Amino acid sequence: MASRGSKIALAGTSLFAVSTIIFVHFQQQAEKAAMHQGVIRDMEQQRIKRERQLDFDLQKQLEAEYKQEQTVRSSLEDVAAPDVKR
């Protein structure tokens, strides 16, 4: 028969091995979840960037339309001496 010490050593080693396997499994799941959150965060940043670019493009278009509707005078016309009758 096996001695009591060898049974305790076998049980301790088995418990250590099983707990190591369980720890590694949960650690991998946590890392996978963290990586997935990174992907989600990147996608959100890309979405925000696209929205900002669309807003910028719209503002550029509106600015161009506004400039077409405006009558632009040269600033030199304002400085020129007015016609004075003597």
Give a brief description.
The chain is an all-alpha fold and 86 residues long. The protein has helices at 4-69, 75-79.
Written account of the structure:
By secondary structure, this protein is mainly alpha-helical. It has a domain at 30-64. The protein contains 2 helices and no strands. The chain has helices at 4-69, 75-79. The termini are far apart.
Essential attributes:
rod-shaped; mainly alpha; transit peptide; 2 helices; 0% strand; 86 residues
Give the topology.
Blueprint: H1 4-69, H2 75-79
Straight-line N-to-C gap: 134 Å
Overall form: rod-shaped
Rg value: 38 Å
Largest sheet: none
Share in helix: over 70%
Mean residue pLDDT: 88
Amount of beta strand: under 5%
What is the chain-wise order of helices and strands? Answer: HH
Number of helices: 2
The tally of strands reads 0
Give start-end ranges of low-pLDDT stretches. none
Subcellular location: Mitochondrion
Pfam families: PET117 (PF15786)
GO cellular component, one term: mitochondrion
Family: Belongs to the PET117 family.
